[in-house]
């Protein structure tokens, strides 16, 4: 009998492996059945729907979207740990559209200095004058922020020009922004990355209140490399959000 | 009364599809089902051993049944059993007061009494009243008040005295209401109170008492042909105690007249010695009240004196022009959002207000800014604030005893503003203690009740529509820096309320959406509650509006500044005369009240050219003011000066009538319909002119949700056993048919 005449080989399954598979499948079905209950319980503990979220500024920089996946993670974190009704969806706004800017009380960017169009800068000024809040955060990745010193200098100059009469002030460790909900200590950052300038958060104070923050703490990046950095960053950003709401 | 329970099956109320639009969830599952069907068919199409078609089909069916069963689990079917019903209506008692004074029982040339006319009108609405209210208690009043068995009781006409205590009788009945309060009070009267009390003050005191107990007042006006001689006099002349520099001062006057033919009278206003033409007033035939108002500019700090002259009538008042005191605003933030940041910025340059926020946010003590509170102050501490703003505070965040304390605080003169950005913010307020103090009735939870609308950052802002009322103009219309349109709140979401309460004033409405009361949805309403004020802003018109408005535009700043200023208009701590009368009768004791913060001795002196000055005698103070007695014995235009221990002075002026004052019965005086109409409107009542008021129309109460029971149908052990069984059968058959 040639090999063509041989019956096709039957799938070989022992009784033990069959029962094992059956039990495994049964457990999976049971788990699938229980899942809606778990989800329902989780849904019941949610806070009420978000009233607003923040938006990411679309700048001419090709890196404006870097780490945008962290936006939703942060929003979820703030929502869950602080019961703040924040929208978890990620939004992006162009500085050319003032109406769009003004739909968000907080706007984030990793490079405001990339915005050079006068009309767009005027829109950003008007947004801040109306009461908006800008959070500018450097990124630890060299393609995004090649030099922290240059990043700081460019932004300090730009903001001084954008908001005449404003003051730039580094926030000390005892500032409420580091303690308003979580106690965070910037000194922890030194172990995570090595940059050409000390980390720190600088506040832009206009008309006696903080309207923008320039952060050299790179709070929105460096998470995949070290989860501890993510933990620190999430707490610090949550503090910033809460501070802006309450002041 | 409960109705039979209604059952329904709800899909996707839990699990991974919760919150999805139902259509989208079904479509997703249909696609998943179709994909599963294809995969099942394909997987059994090519087998390594030959299997008869019926076995192949049977296995396909088993696999498909398992797949569909799993998909069915994801729909999370839930059985809901709801019980609806109408709450039982408990009729409230009604009090009927009959005026048995001389003016009501004097007969005219037809032998017709005003009492007869009032009784005839009452009989037309009495059946509807008896259907709505129970029991009905009757009183008669003239000089004093006495209960009577029924309205036509003959003995009631023997009430002694030569005067009519209309307002004190109403207050007496209000004060002795049965448990649960009166459902309403109906007074059959001609509105002529001849007790000698200050009529405006007595009217306001009665309105306050009625509003505090939630009792609407209804009046049946008795008329006959009794006539009186023509007269014209100034009844009220009101100006604010103080004004800010570079602002406009509004002066109001009320003239009362009875004319046999229409005429016109010129009016002249003198502002600190400078005379200006202030137009004229038209006096119509018959008895009328004429309102007159004018605005004057307050420029530099100091004192402005306004003198009004119309015919032989003269009145004078003074206004202090000074920067305002800082009024404390307690801002309680419930659900955290951005409103506080923006309101703080809006009020930053307004020195008249200081904001103290309360965040339910768990600040550690080290990080809390000095002025921020972490919880609502105690009832005793509330008195240090002029305004409480409850911003998106769910009712459950304030225990009932605290709600009652806030309600009392408003009743004692506080100002409460509720910012409710959406329907979720109104949850739990229906029937709450706080609702009693607010100008609107909230919707109960249940069918047709609260249904939160999700918000999105891209929602478009809509401007509210102002009500064309004098009050809107008074609060927002006097500012040259921004028009009413500029100050119209812009919003994206609305908290839907049931209706405005009687006595409330709606200032702004939704431009298109209809409310439950048939008019457009209420966005801004205010109401006097006791000696305080309350307001509800049923939109999210704060931070979104501020961000939407050009930075150079001051509309939102003026809106909030004007609203706070107006609501706090009576909360002036400087000493001042409280509603001094324009005129007073000669040779009778009168009382002058000085309000505000006065510590130490206060000296009041009355002066008239050519007469020796007379010092007024101080009486025991009442709850809110110091009281001084004066017995004027010479007619004329008197000036009263009050001087405190620091030497600060204030003044008021009174006309002491040379003629005998109106006292005793006024059989020839016309009924004071205008006053009765105003008082009824203040309390949510009406004049009964033979037609049944809308509030008495017997409508069944709306059906409400009484209970709801949910039973999940998707996590029962039997279902999982069935699915496991299907899968097990398939595996066993495959084994038996040598597919495994």
Task: Give the key terms.
heterodimer; A: alpha/beta; Rossmann fold; 6 helices; 7 strands; disordered N terminus; B: alpha/beta; Immunoglobulin-like; 5 domains; 8-stranded mixed β-sheet; 6-stranded mixed β-sheet
Rg of chain A, nearest Å: 25 Å
Helix content of chain B: 10-25%
CATH classification class of the largest domain in chain A: Alpha Beta
Tally of discrete structural domains of chain A: 2
Strand content of chain A: 5-15%
CATH class of the largest domain in chain B: Alpha Beta
**Helix amount of chain A:** 25-40%
The major sheet of chain A is characterized as:
7 strands, mixed
The total beta strand count of chain B reads 38
Mean pLDDT of chain B: 84
First and last CA, distance of chain B: 64 Å
Description:
- The complex is a heterodimer of chains A (247) and B (740).
- With 247 residues, chain A is of the alpha/beta class.
- Chain A has helices at 15-44, 69-82, 98-101, 118-129, 148-162, 227-246; strands spanning 55-57, 91-93, 106-109, 133-137, 167-170, 201-206, 209-215.
- Chain A has 2 domains: 14-45; 55-246, Domain of unknown function DUF4159 (Rossmann fold, 3-Layer(aba) Sandwich), CATH 3.40.50.
- In chain A, strands 2-1-3-4-7-6-5 form a 7-stranded mixed sheet, covered by helices on one side.
- In chain A, α2 (69-82) packs across α6 (227-246).
- The longest helix of chain A is centred in the first third of the chain and has 30 residues, at 15-44.
- Chain B is of the alpha/beta class and 740 residues long.
- Chain B folds into 5 domains: 6-85 and 706-736, no CATH class; 94-228 and 666-696, Rossmann fold (3-Layer(aba) Sandwich); 240-290 and 297-325, Immunoglobulins (Immunoglobulin-like, Sandwich), CATH 2.60.40; 327-567, 3-Layer(aba) Sandwich (Rossmann fold), CATH 3.40.50.880; 572-662, Immunoglobulin-like (Sandwich), CATH 2.60.40.
- Helix content of chain B is 24%, strand content 32%.
- Chain B has 15 helices and 38 strands.
- In chain B, α1 (22-45) runs antiparallel to α2 and α2 (53-74) runs antiparallel to α15.
- The longest helix of chain B has 24 residues, at 22-45.
- Chains A and B meet through α1, α4 and α6 of A and α2, α7, α12 and α15 of B.
């Amino acid at each position: 009998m040639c090999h063509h005449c041989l019956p096709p080989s039957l799938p070989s399954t022992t009784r033990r492996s069959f029962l094992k598979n059956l039990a495994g499948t049964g457990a999976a079905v049971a788990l699938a059945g229980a899942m809606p209950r778990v989800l329902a319980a989780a849904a019941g503990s949610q806070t009420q729907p978000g009233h607003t979220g923040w938006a990411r500024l679309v700048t001419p920089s090709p890196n404006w979207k870097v780490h945008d996946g962290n936006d939703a993670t942060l929003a979820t974190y703030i929502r869950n740990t602080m019961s703040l009704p924040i929208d978890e969806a990620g939004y992006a706004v162009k500085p050319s559209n003032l109406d769009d800017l003004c739909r968000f009380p907080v706007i984030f960017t990793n490079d405001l200095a990339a915005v050079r169009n006068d009309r767009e800068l005027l829109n950003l000024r008007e947004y801040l004058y109306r009461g908006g809040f800008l959070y500018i955060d450097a990124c630890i990745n060299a393609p995004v922020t090649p030099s922290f010193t240059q990043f700081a200098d460019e932004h300090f100059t730009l903001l001084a020009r954008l908001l005449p009469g404003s003051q730039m002030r580094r926030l000390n460790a005892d500032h409420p922004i580091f303690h308003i909900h979580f106690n965070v200590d910037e000194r922890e950052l030194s172990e995570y990355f090595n940059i050409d300038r000390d980390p720190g958060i600088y506040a832009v104070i206009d008309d006696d209140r903080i309207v923008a923050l320039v952060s050299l703490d790179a709070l929105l990046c460096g998470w995949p490399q070290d989860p501890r950095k993510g933990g620190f960053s999430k707490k610090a950003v949550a503090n910033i959000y809460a501070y802006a709401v309450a002041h | 009364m409960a109705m039979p329970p209604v059952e329904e099956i709800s899909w996707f109320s839990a699990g991974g599809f919760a919150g999805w639009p139902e259509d989208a969830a079904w479509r997703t599952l249909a696609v998943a089902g179709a994909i599963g069907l294809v995969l099942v068919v394909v997987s059994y199409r090519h087998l390594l051993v030959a299997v008869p078609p019926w076995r192949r089909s049977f296995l396909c069916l088993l696999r498909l049944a398992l797949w569909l069963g799993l998909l069915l689990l994801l729909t999370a079917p839930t059985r809901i059993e709801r019980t609806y019903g109408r709450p039982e209506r408990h009729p409230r008692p009604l009090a009927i007061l009959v005026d048995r004074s001389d003016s009501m029982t004097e007969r005219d040339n037809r032998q017709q009494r005003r009492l007869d006319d009032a009784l005839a009108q009452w009989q037309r609405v009495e059946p509807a009243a008896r259907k709505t209210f129970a029991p009905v208690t009757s009183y008669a009043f003239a000089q004093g008040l006495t209960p009577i068995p029924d309205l036509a009781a003959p003995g009631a006409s023997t009430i002694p005295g030569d005067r009519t205590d209309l307002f004190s009788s109403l207050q007496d009945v209000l004060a002795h209401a049965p448990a649960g309060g009166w459902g309403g009070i109906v007074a059959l009267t001609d509105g002529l109170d001849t007790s000698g009390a200050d009529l405006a003050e007595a009217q306001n005191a009665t309105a306050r008492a009625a509003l505090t107990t939630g009792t609407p007042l209804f009046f049946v006006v008795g008329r006959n042909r009794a006539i009186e001689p023509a007269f014209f006099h100034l009844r009220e002349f009101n100006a604010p105690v103080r004004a800010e520099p570079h602002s406009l001062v509004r002066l109001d006057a009320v003239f009362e007249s009875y004319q046999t033919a229409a005429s016109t009278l010129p009016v002249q206003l003198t502002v600190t010695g400078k005379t200006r033409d202030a137009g004229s007033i038209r006096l119509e035939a018959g008895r009328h009240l004429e309102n007159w108002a004018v605005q004057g500019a307050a420029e530099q700090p100091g004192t402005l004196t306004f003198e009004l002259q119309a015919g032989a009538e003269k009145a004078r008042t003074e206004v202090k022009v000074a920067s305002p005191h800082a009024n404390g605003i307690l801002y309680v933030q419930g659900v955290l959002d951005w409103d506080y940041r923006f309101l703080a910025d809006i009020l930053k340059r307004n020195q008249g207000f200081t904001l103290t926020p309360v965040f339910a946010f768990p600040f550690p003590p080290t990080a809390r800014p000095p002025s921020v509170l972490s919880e609502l102050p105690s009832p005793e501490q509330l008195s240090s604030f002029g305004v409480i703003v409850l911003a998106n505070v769910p009712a459950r965040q304030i225990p009932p005893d605290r709600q009652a304390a806030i309600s009392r605080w408003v009743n004692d003169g506080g100002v409460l503003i509720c910012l409710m950005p959406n329907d979720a913010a109104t949850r739990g307020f229906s029937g709450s203690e706080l609702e009693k103090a607010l100008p609107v009735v909230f919707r109960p939870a249940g069918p047709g009740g609260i249904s939160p609308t999700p918000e999105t950052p891209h929602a478009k802002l809509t401007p509210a529509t102002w009500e064309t009322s004098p009050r809107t103009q008074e609060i927002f219309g006097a500012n040259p820096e921004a028009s009413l349109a500029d100050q119209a709140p812009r919003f994206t979401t609305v908290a839907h309320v049931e209706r405005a309460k009687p006595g409330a004033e709606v200032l702004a409405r939704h431009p298109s959406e209809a409310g439950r009361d048939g008019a457009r949805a209420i966005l801004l309403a205010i109401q006097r509650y006791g000696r305080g004020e309350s307001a509800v802003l049923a939109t999210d018109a704060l931070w979104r509006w501020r961000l939407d408005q050009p930075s150079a535009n001051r509309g939102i700043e003026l809106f909030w500044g004007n609203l706070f200023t107006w609501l706090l208009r009576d909360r002036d701590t400087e000493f001042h005369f409280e509603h001094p009368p324009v005129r007073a009768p000669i040779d009778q004791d009168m009382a002058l009240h000085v309000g505000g913060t006065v510590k130490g001795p206060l000296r009041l002196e009355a002066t008239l050219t050519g007469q020796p000055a007379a010092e007024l005698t101080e009486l025991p103070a009442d709850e809110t003011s110091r009281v001084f007695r004066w017995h004027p014995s010479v007619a004329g235009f008197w000036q009263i000066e009050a001087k405190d221990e620091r030497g600060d002075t204030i003044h008021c002026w009174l006309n002491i009538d040379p003629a005998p004052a109106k006292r005793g019965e006024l059989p020839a005086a016309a009924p004071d319909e205008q006053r009765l109409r105003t008082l009824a409107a203040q309390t949510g009542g009406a004049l009964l002119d033979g037609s049944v008021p809308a509030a008495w129309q017997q409508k069944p109460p709306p059906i409400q949700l009484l209970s709801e029971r949910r039973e999940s149908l998707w996590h029962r052990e039997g279902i999982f056993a069935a699915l496991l069984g299907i899968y097990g059968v398939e595996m066993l058959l495959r084994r038996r048919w040598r597919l495994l």
